[in-house]
Amino acid sequence: QVQLVESGGGLVQAGGSLRLSCAASGRTFSRYAWFRQAPGKEREFVASIRSSGTNTYYADSVKGRFTISRDNDRNTIYLEMNNLKPEDTAVYYCGAGRSTYDYWGQGTQVTVSS
Q1: Residue 30 to residue 83: CA distance in whole angstroms
Q2: pLDDT 10s digits, 85-105
């Protein structure tokens, strides 16, 4: 059974940092990504990483502030978030799959206060 479990969310002041984790079990995937959904908005792409760990992609809004990485031994994906802004407030979801993101975690809340 495939399971993705996110953790690491919380409340932080603007300019602060958080590190999100996504522990995957059941199988490994060729690609992972972080998405987020703010209240009243659609889910949006944040960052993605391929199985090799060398191919990473970021939304323009987080480039230079967020870093996605993976630990293949632990089958865990991370999202290091620095210089957080109030507009980063959202529920962050981990997605996994081969060509599309077919599996999702339950999400973790990130709240950035101004």
Answers
A1: 29
A2: 999 999 999 999 988 899 999
